[in-house]
Amino acid sequence: MPLGRQFARLLTAPFRRRHYRGVAGILKTFEKPSEALRRYVLDAGPYPWTPTLRTPLGPQQVTLYSSHDVRTVTEVFCRRDYGEAGGEVVIDLGANIGVSALFFLTRRADARVYCYEPDPRNAARLRSNLNPFWDRCRLTEVAVGVTSGRVAFIQEQTGRYSGLAEVSTRAGREIEVECREITQVLGEVLAIEDQIDLLKVDTEGNEAELIAAIPPKQLCLIREVYYETNEADGLTGHFKN
Fold it and tell me: Mean pLDDT across the chain, nearest whole number?
């Protein structure tokens, strides 16, 4: 992070309530909170880094590949941007390296998480991070959109901000990936499960479009939806049915 941005972040962080929640959560969640705070605040330290997190199912390790991944852990595990309890059946659209899926899987022993992630590099890292829970999660390596087909996809350097080329605002390597229609994705899960307890949507640009495309007959079978609303600040929206 450039020095100017880092300094500005340090100055403004104390005035943002969510940063207090994040810092308090770091102290409770990381087995070595001082190291986590150093990396979160100062973007310091070498990577990969594999911290141990305290969870309801006991200590769990997760391998992180940049300070951006530390931010993701802080938002999900420490700030609780996706709530406290998760659910028995969870769909994770934009599963990245598996941080959010790991959170859902460690909230309860019967949680089942359906992950969708098109970036091949992120998918490989997700498999490694979720290996202890592979009997309760499934990864499908596709993007999710309002239509199906082969699409251009921007593979951003850190992996956190990779997204469909048509909506991405990030620089990166352009690759081609399979895209699956949101109604098909939900239909596949609902063919296995009676309902979906939680749908998480973090697809770097087309979240609102995806949610708007869910037909009422499927939406009524989803109890909670969390979706990204502000990429820069990592903010999420939320509604219940």
Answer: 90
